[in-house]
Amino acid sequence: MIVQIFHNMAKTVDISAITGGTQPYDIWVCEDCSSNVCQYITTINDADLPYDFILPSNFENLSSYTIRIIDNNNCVTCNTF
Q1: Which whole number is the average pLDDT over 1-19?
Q2: Which of 23, 32, 74, 77 is the most exposed place for a label (fewest CB within 10 A)?
Q3: CATH of 2-80, one of 2.60.40, 3.90.1570, 1.10.10, 3.40.50
């Protein structure tokens, strides 16, 4: 699965594309890809893209954070910022 994600200093996350996966997609913010320290954001479909959200406050002061996307087949992809 290929994901295009952008973020800015205001901690807005923009998921502009998800390709190669099977919808729907569960969106999570985590400390890292293998971490259980995560916060569920929402479930989206291709029709919802692009999708923007504000990074949850408990992740704002971390030196990095990971967007974890899980598709309908439980395929997991992670992007760390």
Answers
A1: 74
A2: 74
A3: 2.60.40
